Amino acid sequence: MKKKLAAILVATMALSLAACGGNNASTAAPAESAAASTAAESTAAESTAAESTAAESTAEAASTIAFGDVMTYEEFDAAEIDTPVTVETYVQAKQSWWEGAATVYTQAEDGAYLIYGMGCTEEEYAKLVPGTKIKVAGYKSEWSGEIEITDAIYEIEEGEAFIAEPTDVTEFLGTDDLAKYMNQYVSFTGMTVEAAGKDDAGNDVAFLYNWDGSGEEGNDLYFNVSKDGKTYTFTVESYLTGADTDVYQAVKALEIGQTVDLTGFLYWYEGANPHITSVKVA
Amino acid sequence: MKKMKTRLALLLTAILTVSMLLAGCHGSKDTAAFAVPETLDTSRDFEITFWAKNDTNKTQTRIYENAIKGFEALYPNIHVNMRLYTDYGKIYNDVITNIATQTTPNVCITYPDHIATYLTGSNVVVPLDELMENAKYGFGGSELLYDGPDNGELVDEYLSECAFGGHYYAVPYMRSTEACYVNKTYVEKLGFELPETLTWDFVWEVSEAAMEKNADGTFKVNGQKVMIPFIYKSTDNMMIQMLRQKGADYSTAQGEIGLFNDTTKELLLEIAEHAKSRAFSTFKISSYPANFLNAGQCIFAVDSTAGATWMGTDAPLIDISEDKLVRFETAVRTVPQFDPENPSMISQGPSVCIFNKEDPQEVLASWLFMQYLLTNDVQIAYAETEGYVPVTKKARDDAAYRDYLSRKGEDNDNHYSVKLEASELLIENTENTFTTAVFNGSASLRDAAGQLIENVTKSARRSEKIDEAYMTKLFKEVTSLYRLDSISAVEGKADLGPLPGTARALIGTLVLVWILIGLYVLKEYVKKSKKSG
Description:
The complex is a heterodimer.
Chain A: H1 2-27, E1 36-37, H2 53-64, H3 73-78, E2 84-98, E3 101-108, E4 111-119, H4 122-127, E5 133-143, E6 146-156, E7 167-168, E8 185-194, E9 197-198, E10 204-205, E11 208-209, E12 221-227, E13 230-236, H5 246-252, E14 259-265, E15 275-281
Parallel strand pairs in A: 4-6, 7-8
Antiparallel strand pairs in A: 2-3, 2-5, 3-4, 5-6, 8-12, 8-14, 9-10, 11-12, 12-13, 14-15
Chain B: H1 3-23, E1 46-53, H2 58-74, E2 78-85, H3 88-100, E3 107-110, H4 112-118, H5 129-133, H6 156-160, E4 163-164, E5 167-168, E6 171-172, E7 174-175, E8 178-183, H7 184-189, H8 200-209, E9 230-232, H9 235-246, H10 262-276, E10 280-282, H11 289-294, E11 300-304, E12 330-334, E13 345-346, E14 351-354, H12 360-372, H13 376-383, E15 389-390, H14 393-396, H15 399-406, H16 417-428, E16 433-434, E17 436-437, H17 442-461, H18 468-481, H19 484-493, H20 501-532
Parallel strand pairs in B: 1-2, 1-3, 9-10, 9-11, 13-16
Antiparallel strand pairs in B: 3-14, 4-5, 6-14, 7-15, 8-11, 8-12
């Protein structure tokens, strides 16, 4: 009898352990299970490190930044990087919103500001229609040459709406003076479409998905235009103007050799990198 | 051209990670656990989706495309549709969204922190143990139509990174680590000799020395108005590696968070000091280390070995205009160390997982494609695109790969010396790599580790006072921002649901057995009592 009991106990325990082990495989919910983690790599070509600027902006903005005296663009321009700034400006275009942070192109009569990672709710973001006057406080920052206001807070102000007319900056292409128009709504006229690269068959193409053609529909479009023998790379930023927009489709329809007029926002990345919002074939 | 897009794409990730932390992957209808079919059904067509990630690199895209072509030629009844991503965060985002609607891809490039979140759903990710060992379709299986790695031919360290709770839920695809790309010319110009293994002290010392300016405001070392001697790309890795090298807490294997400790404070105070002098900055604050390095505006640029093709004067990929490019000698070193005799560096790089489907044949087809990605042709071709290394011993020992490594510096394209040195660095240090524990919330903890450095660096640049009170507030804010206090709370109070029927039956049996034992003992006692009476 003792042996039988012992055998029953052993068998029962073995079955219990097997059940516990097997259960993990079938339900696959090892929330507490330990294992090794392979870090997301971060390459120079494309970061895979999770960036949390938006979340950080919201939290940090609430704790460290406050509205100061409103600056003119000239005063903003003269301010040191990493110092607090406060400006009054007008929404021109919204690029993105995600979980409490917005990126917005804004412009006043005397200059333009890209507000990167500005804390706001989705409902508040919806109210930021083009022309809306806002007061923004944040830190003047520089990322790859782009001057922007980061970790910002804002409030909507009463006032007449302002929509900037595009400034034709074609003559400043390739000169240091172009930077004076950074983030402004600008136009480029009489530009010639050049080859942006080659397709798999080796044929010249007028645009690329991503900078090297590694992307697909919905990604940024890169295309080259020239003026007076010099070629410049322009971009359709898919967060600003996605695949369902006219400009996205218009750029996809461009042909090498066409003459085009372009408008957009003068973004900067290691030099001028305009984010085009409209293109017209002459 | 990488520009703002990258920042915008990336900022979504951490926040999504946070938002998923508590939500997990619930809401989806359960799929039955996968059982390996006896044979692949070749009478039916299968369409499988493959979500792939490239480094905005057209060559990598072509390698994926060629792999699909090669696979489909062998298995004409299996069609692979690829969707391309350029960052892990977006894949993670889309997978989470698609779990709820049961529209996950079949095969997906991923990394273990993300899988830990996917696993909060039931039967979402296929455990691979049985597939790996299957005699017909497993590693070295008799029915495979290609020459894949045999059991034991995956690099052990890398395969083990894909195991959770005793099961494999992924296979490694490529591996990289971080490297420090050094402007050796400037180091020597500043009067220093570049050591074989960098120490943190050396990097800080040289970086501060490089901040010396001329009367006109230009930096003495480069004659330019811009110089950020030390730029770190992934500050999460920076903090994790520093803590590891110091033997300090980060997290336990069970997911208890140890990040907010005194060593972390000490490290942050040192970083703040160099951020204040502007000798140190980060990718998020300033831009890609490669751009500054190549412009002669940075001396120590830390980035992935998978970013090696962007590093150095002769790099095949350059993101600054030619007139800004400065000639210098590029040296490749491991990330800075606290103990150079015992170097320690992070293991990183993509893995691949399979999502479960109702049709086991579809899962088997997915497994066959996943395994095809481990064949020598795919492994070697992809590894050569950047400073990656193959994850199989079979590929590493292949004559073609050895020939590739032996031709370092023959050209500035496929045999670009910096790229090959980066690969060699990892191969030589495979045993010195480490990974961190995976649990539901480990991705948030990783983000938090980087956030500490980002915040301190920003604050130092903005001349904020950084002291004990600042650290206390910072720890509290970052804990709250990434909801790290909820990780242990969730685990501590997790509702595990009703016990499965099998478990209830077994517990009942155990109770019955103990009752029988009790009755037996009682009976013996009574018997003895009668005899003695």
